[in-house]
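User: Can you write out an input/output pair for a complex, sequences first and structure second?

Assistant: Here is one pair. Inputs:
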Amino acid sequence: MNYTQITFKLNPDNQENREILVALLSDLSFESFDETEELVMGYIPGETVDLEQIGEITASLPFSVQTENEMIPDQNWNEVWEKNYFKPLLIGNRCLVRAPFHTEFEPAEFELVIEPKMAFGTGNHETTTLVAEQILNMDLSGKTVLDMGCGTGILGMMASLKGAKNVTAIDIDTWSFESTVENARLNNIFNLEAKLGDASLLGDETYEIIFANIHKNVIVNDLPVYESVLQSGGKLYLSGFNTHDMPDVKAKAESLGLRETGFQEKNNWVVYSFEKP
Amino acid sequence: MAKEIAGLIKLQVKGGAANPSPPIGPALGSKGVNIMQFCKQFNGRTQDLAGKVLPVVITVYADKSFDFVIKQPPVAVQLIEAAKVKKGSAEPHLVKVGSVNWEQIKMIAEIKLEDLNCFSLEGAMSMVAGTARSMGITVTGERPSTN
């Protein structure tokens, strides 16, 4: 997505004035702020910015603020890491994950080729490996699988390698959606359908297995939808949150009638599993 | 042996809203850090502070690994929340836009004290009250004792 960078030049410029400006702007659609010695920069997703709203705030301050805006085109900022530091890795001693340009690697029982770009899921993060290790130990023959927050598509593709009948992979992020489509093609996986959007896309089909590696707030919010599309006897694997968030997730899941079946933990990250009776 | 530090990056990001776009993308990407890894960690740790501006200091090491420290929301952010104001005051000493009491000032000072080294609660309270006045926020009630 393209972003708009708005720069603010303050006069007089000091720490307190900068803090007041950022605090008031943070009520608007700014996602983040950066500072240099001369300027404060704020970042808004998209190209449409309500300059009038920003002007109302800067005009209400006891110091003067000059603003300028500039569009920053979308690009793959992760390229330096990908090309230089993304190394082939083995998950659960059974599945090799590598980039298309990797030439030196040990063959393994399963292999996935991933062009990561700006999507999450290269096997470098605990949440991915935790769920991936579960998948490697599952019998998915003939199962229908849903991968929510699919990122690179790594989990859904692994489910396909493990025999799933078909996989639906959904992500709200355009980079992730495109990455899943590209990676499925790279791995000759044809029973995976990628969709761009969120839980509101669900409802027409039901699944025997659901993975959701996202964040606590999204998971807790969308759990009723996951539950509604999970078949009776089906299993749900939730990840992307820390151990201290487990009580919130458990409370919500149990309020929907789901039964806890266990969890795995690594460096404070969790995969939490539930079953629909 | 301590790891060699390649750089420090200071940003302010809303809780739960880290993504690989500017400024995080270019700042971390240019240093060869796996941006997605940082975003997942930051968002995982800030789910309960979603939408609130949080200062974060990221240490990037020579081996491209990283650590980061999330600080408490800035004083001004906590003040606008406590006083429920949407705008500042162009003449903060004359035109008031809201008010907070000394108990609220003390609470903000206590939270912020974690980020300020060698600083007493007394000093932190005076600093918070000063920022409030600069924003046109009146401080009401009796200043509580800190002993």
